[in-house]
Amino acid sequence: MRPLSLSFRHFLRGQAVLTNRAGSIRCIRGVAMAGRLGPTTTVPSVLILNEKIITLQKRTMFIQTADTPNPESVKFMPGRPVLTSETSGDSADTTGFYVTRNDKADIALSPLAKSLFEIDGIKGVYLGPDFVTITKVAETGWSHIRTLVFSAIMDHYASGKPALTSTPEITDTTILDDDDEIVAMIKELLESRIRPAVQEDGGDIRYVGFNVDTGIVNVQLAGSCAGCPSSSVTLKNGVENMLMHYIPEVTGVEAIAEEDEEDSEPIEASEDEAKAKSYEERLRAAGIPFSD
C-alpha cells in the first residue's frame, strides 16, 4: 500500500478518515467529531493508532506526554506556559496548583481543572509552570482518558482563558511574620531546593507544619507524588535527609495522606526503590544528600 497522504477528507462520528494517494480509505479511530473538512483544513484533534497516542498540530500546538514514577499519573506538556505570573504570583516558575475532585471551591478557580474533571475517572489535577499532571483512579484505563485529556487541554487554549483565574497571595511556603527561624529555613529549602526537583516528574510537595517538640516536619504530596508507590523512599532518602542535614532541629519528615490514599496497598521494597530512581537522580542534582 502506498503511503497515506495527510489530507483529511471528512470526519465521521468517532472516526477520522484518511485517504491514501490511490484514493482508498483508511480509518483511524479515537476522534469524536462530525462534519466535512476541506483537503487543506488544519485539524485540531488527537488520534490513536494501534493504541498509541499521536498528537496533531493545532495552530502550531503539540501536546507531549511523559510517564511518572506513579503509574496512575501522567504528565501532559502542551509546549506553552500553563501557570504565569498573573495567575500564580511571583514564584510562577516553582509554585503549582493541585486540586482533587472533592475540592469544589478550588476547582472553581481553574477553568482548565474544571474542564478536566468533567472526564470520568480523573482523581486529581496538578498545574505546573509548563505542564499538567493528571492522576486517575486505579479502575480507569489510560487508553480512555488520554484522548479526552488531550481534547480538554486543546479546547482550553483555544478558549483563551487562563489556567487559574485567581490564587491565594499566601502559599504553603510563604514566610510569615510569626514564623520562627527553623520554620523559615524549612520553607526556604522546600521552595528553592526540593520543590523544583520534584516538579520535574509532575509532582509537588507542600509544607504543612513543624512540631517543635518532636522535630517532625509534616508535608503533603501532590500531583504524581500523591499516592505514588515510591514516594516513601523519596521522602525518607531525599527530603528528610536534606532537611536534617541543614537543620539539626529536624528529626524526621512525615507525609499527610489524603483520605482516599489510606487504603493503597504497599509494594515490595525492591520495586519501590526502582520506581524512585528518577526522583533520587533529580534530588541528587539539586544537592540533596542521600544516605547509603
From TrEMBL:
<comment type="similarity">
    <text>Belongs to the NifU family.</text>
</comment>
<dbReference type="GO" id="GO:0005739">
    <property type="term" value="C:mitochondrion"/>
</dbReference>
<dbReference type="InterPro" id="IPR036498">
    <property type="entry name" value="Nfu/NifU_N_sf"/>
</dbReference>
<dbReference type="InterPro" id="IPR014824">
    <property type="entry name" value="Nfu/NifU_N"/>
</dbReference>
<protein>
    <recommendedName>
        <fullName>Scaffold protein Nfu/NifU N-terminal domain-containing protein</fullName>
    </recommendedName>
</protein>
<dbReference type="Pfam" id="PF08712">
    <property type="entry name" value="Nfu_N"/>
</dbReference>
<dbReference type="GO" id="GO:0016226">
    <property type="term" value="P:iron-sulfur cluster assembly"/>
</dbReference>
<dbReference type="Pfam" id="PF01106">
    <property type="entry name" value="NifU"/>
</dbReference>
<dbReference type="InterPro" id="IPR001075">
    <property type="entry name" value="NIF_FeS_clus_asmbl_NifU_C"/>
</dbReference>
<feature type="compositionally biased region" description="Acidic residues">
    <location>
        <begin position="258"/>
        <end position="271"/>
    </location>
</feature>
<dbReference type="GO" id="GO:0005506">
    <property type="term" value="F:iron ion binding"/>
</dbReference>
<feature type="region of interest" description="Disordered">
    <location>
        <begin position="258"/>
        <end position="278"/>
    </location>
</feature>
<feature type="domain" description="Scaffold protein Nfu/NifU N-terminal">
    <location>
        <begin position="63"/>
        <end position="160"/>
    </location>
</feature>
<dbReference type="GO" id="GO:0051536">
    <property type="term" value="F:iron-sulfur cluster binding"/>
</dbReference>
<dbReference type="InterPro" id="IPR034904">
    <property type="entry name" value="FSCA_dom_sf"/>
</dbReference>
